[in-house]
Amino acid sequence: xxxxxxxxxxxxxxxxxxxxxxxxxxxxxxxxxxxxxxxxxxxxxxxxxxxxxxxxxxxxxxxxxxxxxxxxxxxxxxxxxxxxxxxxxxxxxxxxxxxxxxxxxxxxxxxxxxxxxxxxxxxxxxxxxxxxxxxxxxxxxxxxxxxxx
Length: 149
What we know:
The chain is an alpha/beta fold. It has helices at residues 5-16, 52-55, 58-62, 78-89, 106-114, 129-138, and strands at 28-33, 36-42, 97-102, 119-124, 141-144. α5 links the parallel β3 and β4. α5 packs parallel to α6 (129-138).
C-alpha cells in the first residue's frame, strides 16, 4: 500500500537518523515544503570536529537527565542541522514543515518558530512541556505520527 505524505516523510526522517553519531539518541529531521524535501539533518558534532562516538559523551559523563543541560553536548540537534543546511545553501524554508524522529526541544522549537515553519510532525515524544506550549502559542501545528509496519 502506498504511504501518505506524512508517513512517507516521517519514514525518511527515520532513515536520516541512521547517520547520527550521538551515543544517547539518534535523531533525524527534514524540512519539507510543497511536498519537496528541502534539507535534512541528524544530530552530531559540528563539521570537522570529533563526534561523540569518538570523543565520548559529555552529558553521559555529567549524569545529565534527558531533556536537560543541552549546553553540555558537543553535538548539534538534528533540527538545528536541518535549519543550518537551509541557511548554508540559501534555501527558503518559510512555510515549511519539519518532520523529525523526535519532538523538538525548547531550543529547537524557538528556532523553528523564527524560521517561519508552520508544522512539526514527530515520531517520538520528548520530555519538554515548554516546547509544546511555545508551538501552540506560535500557532504551529504539531502532531505525533505513527508509522505502520
